[in-house]
């Protein structure tokens, strides 16, 4: 008696139960369920950080340091903190707009692209803090407020003296002047 025939004869209970299952649910459903329960369980996906991604890459050593710096900034959300920032980043560099569903999914795209940039460009991105999210709006708001006050004051003077003042600064000029010496010029 071979092992196969021994298994066939020693499991009449299983055969009967399978026969009943096939009669009740059909062979296709029984096979589908058997394949589902015999598959090994899926391992939970571990999200790789940007630092892990760069560590797994093989760029030249001088570039790897820069990429690791950017990866750390990325992981801490100081570099490309939102998916919109990532899209803007790619657009600024003329890269065809890739669909970015989220920051985590974009990590390989970002760092493969960064790897293609020159050392000088990477240094500039790190130094200038380029693509670090929304700009600070405080100075801009202050410049607009100062310009409004200046315009209203000049309008009052012009209407009382009957003269028009043609030397009004634009809000961007007022903001630049304020940044250069701390006080709005007017």
In short:
This protein has 186 residues and is an all-alpha fold. The protein is 67% helix and 0% strand.
List the helices and strands and how they pair.
Layout: H1 3-10, H2 12-25, H3 27-38, H4 50-56, H5 61-75, H6 83-92, H7 103-116, H8 119-128, H9 138-161, H10 171-181
Tell me about the largest β-sheet: none
State the secondary-structure class: mainly alpha
Distance between the termini: 106 Å
Any idea what the radius of gyration is? Answer: 33 Å
Bin the helical content.
55-70%
Question: How would you explain this protein's 3D organization?
Answer:
The longest helix is centred in the last third of the chain and has 24 residues. By secondary structure, this protein is mainly α. Helices cover 67% and strands 0% of the residues. It is elongated, with a radius of gyration of 33 Å.
